[in-house]
Design a protein that fits this description.
This protein has about 240 residues and is of the alpha+beta class. The chain contains 7 helices and 10 strands.
Length: about 240
């Protein structure tokens, strides 16, 4: 739910006009954060980071956020921390997702039937597992749902220059970080999950809002089971 009368995607344009950012000028992520902290302090850094991804024409994950052609083609990302205004005359065309009927945009949600055991075993790629679970989080825990905020959802949620496979909300309103491994899950995954949990706690969660982790793997190694055995916030 928007915290201000204008959605964050529109406030980004207000920022460009207010600074102002001229064509060819490079702006840093830190400058963006400072502007929002000064003018719209209720917005979480995680929300701002996700919208930078959505509004960057060359960001590979932008289509997870259903960018609106033209309206959301604002920045060109130089690296994880530097941006400039998109130049349609000289920059590559914005990354788009084209649906089967030829229209531009994210495809409609499809109804997914209850999977059989053989179907669950057949996931060949992590993306297949990620996209399936994003629509069927109830299979992991009752009441678990995909995080959504102002058109930004929790699939490949940007977090500190990396991407969380799935960011979800549980029945009590707490954040759940899901890390997926289609092969064997090793103990080093625990550090990865806890890093993401710390980022969400710092940049997105409200004070006191719990954050925990889920590791989903084709095979759980004994090392991973031992690494998680003393942790209450990682399953």
């Amino acid at each position: 739910m928007a915290k201000y009368t204008e959605p964050t995607r529109m406030l980004m344009r207000r920022m460009v006009d207010d600074i102002p950012v001229s064509p060819g000028q490079v702006i840093t992520r830190q400058e963006v954060m400072i502007w929002f902290a000064t003018n719209y302090p209720q917005l979480k850094p995680g929300t701002i980071t996700a919208h930078l991804c959505r509004l960057s024409t060359n960001a590979l994950s932008r289509n997870h956020y259903s960018p609106k052609p033209g309206e959301d083609d604002l920045f060109y990302q130089l690296d994880g921390s530097h941006f400039r205004l998109y130049d349609p005359q000289n920059d590559p065309p914005p990354i788009r997702r084209v649906t089967s009927d030829g229209t531009i945009g994210a495809p409609p949600e499809e109804q997914v039937d209850e999977p059989t055991e053989s179907e669950v075993r057949s996931f060949a790629y992590e993306a297949d597992l990620r996209n399936f679970l994003a629509k069927n989080l109830y299979l992991l825990e009752s009441g678990l749902r995909l995080f959504e905020d102002e058109g930004i959802d929790g699939v490949e949620y940007p977090a500190g220059g990396r991407f969380i496979d799935i960011l979800a909300i549980d029945a009590r309103g707490g954040f759940v970080v899901l890390e997926l491994k289609v092969s064997r899950g090793y103990d080093r995954v625990v550090g990865q999950v806890r890093r993401y949990m710390g980022w969400i706690a710092k940049n997105l969660a409200e004070p006191g809002q719990p954050v925990r982790g889920f590791i989903v793997a084709r095979e759980l190694t004994e090392d991973l089971i031992l690494a998680c055995s003393g942790l209450r916030d990682v399953q």
